[in-house]
Hints:
The chain is α/β, with parallel strands linked by helices. The chain has helices spanning 18-27, 44-49, 84-95, 97-110, 117-124, 131-140, 171-180, 201-209, 224-237, 263-272; strands at 3-7, 32-35, 56-67, 70-77, 184-187, 214-218, 240-243, 279-280.
Amino acid sequence: MRIDLHTHSTASDGTDSPAELVRTAAAAGLDVVGLTDHDTTRGHAEALAALPEGLTLVTGAELSCRLDGISMHMLAYLFDPEEPALLAERELVRDDRVPRAKGMIAKLNALDVPVTWEQVSRIAGDGSVGRPHVASALVELGVVPTVGDAFTPEWLADGGRAFVEKHETDPFEAIRLIKGAGGVAVFAHPAAAKRGRTVPESAIAEMAAAGLDGIEVDHMDHDADARTRLRGLAGELGLLVTGSSDYHGSRKTCVLGEYTTDPEVYGEITRRATGAFPVPGTGGA
């Protein structure tokens, strides 16, 4: 089985619609794909309606978190999307995205970059607006050559000249909410140092004690040494090890199935979940 548990659609900051994403996943030879848009489940219905025969969908979301000033992401799998507490927190995070984007635009304008809210809004479309959309606007304007080049201290990286904070959930609260909604919590790309500061291993140990289920080890932002270190840490803490592409369509260079999750780990994730269950495709629209 080929299992990719971390992808994004136009419901957040990917460039494939949810329907396009699942069709592309099937064409890429995946057996299981996780749709984990940022702080939203809005793409799930479209993905399910288009789910090709032979592909199973794992519903989820990637929750924006912050610990001691460090931004981090928590993957939530197979939770009940209507559970009130987690739904309210997702809405709180999502609602703060627009004023945050407008704040970044104001800072860029002060740096003589002529980006506008209309431009960023057009790029975001129906998705939850975020930094990648602002970064794409910078690419359109020729300020930076790629979206990744916008995530530097000069521009949009944490603490960068045009960075603006948004509401982000405490990761311990996120774990509590995910578990309360019957879901499984996995810390996304925990050693992605090129994105900014990363949380210490001692904090991961504390999260494990608080109910964290796993850590995403095999990821494009982790080099071989980081993957070895994280795999050892997961073994020490009794955490599941996942691997994923973090696919964003054309917005990033990664491809579906670039990294995958072991079928036994996937089986354990599905056994632990009580809020929702994987959905096998029967040949969608």
